[in-house]
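Bumping with the actual sequence this time:
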Amino acid sequence: MPENGHFRAQKKTVFDPSFWLHERNSSLSYVGSRGAENLALNIDMFPKIIYTMNIIKDMAGGGQMSRFAKTLFSLLLLFLLFLLVLFLHSAQDIILESKVTYAGQIGLHNNDQETRTIDDSSFINTAYIELYYDDHDLWAVQQDTSYHEQVNHDYISGFDLSYFDTISVSAYSPHFIIVDGGDAEDFMEKVIALSHNEAIASIYVYEEYLLLTERDPIQGCTHDDGADCGGSGGSNYYGTFEGLGEVAQTNGNVMLDTRIGIVERYAPYFADSQLSDMNWKIQSPYYSLTDIHATNVVKTLKNEYAETSDYAVFVSCALYPYEIMNSVNWLINEGVSIINISMGIDTETTYNSTARYFDYVSVQNNVLFVMANTNIPNTENTLHVTFPGLSYNVLTVGAVNQNLLYENKSGYKVAFQISKPNLVDNCKRPYSDGCATSYSTPRVTAKAARLINTYPELKNNLVLLLSVIHTGSSIGYVGGVSPDYDATGFEKKVGAGFLNSSNAHLIMDQNQHAVLQFSTYPDGMVFYEGLINVVQGGYIYLSVATPAIVSKSRLYYLFHGYAPIQLQVRVNGSPVGTYDNGNILYARFFAISGSVVEYRVFIVGAAPNQEYDVALSWR
């Protein structure tokens, strides 16, 4: 096992990086507006119009024109003015259309279901609309954010929204959402017409995934029509359950420091005898609808973290991304530190605005998202991974069976310089033989919650929490993976492996971690190095984490990359391999007793006058 050695952090602006084995590049994302480009092209026509008018004047003989020529010239001027009016009207339409951006297809579905075909008919039209607040309203919401909802309603009352099926008003920011199940082109025309209102700043249009079939196979119970899913209990594919129906909105002490957020399609049945002693709060009005999947997710969490007096569970319900964003806002407002999401879409692999949203919110609020990976098994690097799980700062959880054997029960994906899942856990469904990432995910959530409860300093340090969780995990616990996995201990199908809580707690107890702030300002710290003296031979684990940085531009989220960090490790002077997983660097290597491990973390190729948060942990 390792023993703490000595550490040396230096402030330098120049050093020789020849020691390093490879380079990393962070990527940038830029957003353009096609409408604005078209407008720029049309504005360029103005000098050409003036030039043409001068030519006509010269052809007419300058100031010495006949009456006929003057009349002709006047008609030509009137015609050109008419064209100019048409152009200005067209330019106004272009400006209005540039408010509207089509942002693609996104969506969520429950990951405890069989695979179904997803095509164009699977989506519903949704527009995210941001409002311009006047100075008075802007001041009001700055004084008290709870005014957002009322201010939004005041603005919306002046719009004609009778064309649309559903209106959802944000209580946390200056925006609202419209949803319509009609034709996509017709919806876009209506949205463009709506954009003429001066109070509308921008509109992002998505086609959002629509859950096509009922999720719960209980005979006579359906959620799609909004009916209460009552029942006397029994046993089915999901295991044994006591019944479903309305539950109390709150129970117990919800003011505990450790708060876990859960986003599900419907609420857990907390009246179940196995859950009734928990502390919970459900966002209104969702406590009136419960289902088995959500109930089993919470049962799994409790089975992993039985000391329910340590924490409170907050539940919000969502299906579409606009709903999940509102759910996340509510959960953050309630002070949660971890959010469990056991659902997702299997076919989306683009790093779109919603995926960037999770990276933005996680850093802004120091919230850890733990998300289920897809249940679609695959043996090759395919498209099969959940799209929220492709966010850089999110922990994406894959599946192994209850014996920690990998059975190809969940997919994996390498994209955008990252590999998912990050780690795996037992996927067994409570009280049945089923297996799904919906249940491996709350086990990781429970372990992370226990860490935060034991070490409160992790609550406000997302980057250190990510590092400790990766270092506390090991592929050595997982059987059934290919013996030729990466020598660094990171295997694409299972990530860093299985998280052992004892390992993570050991890291914190023995202070085997460091929180760093690198800087490219003059005299800033640009590298950190240290020694580990190995007392007892065995595997050494080390990971470095830095957050992906996303900024918000109105309702769009812009990705700016992450710190260009590198990790170098030597054992008794010989370099060992490290795994570069985007904003997470990882190493696993064997060292005999008496070995000296040297490690160095540094930044390369960073722009001047930048600061980067970095965390390091080892065991």
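The tokens above came from a reply further down the thread. The first helix runs from residue 34 to 43.
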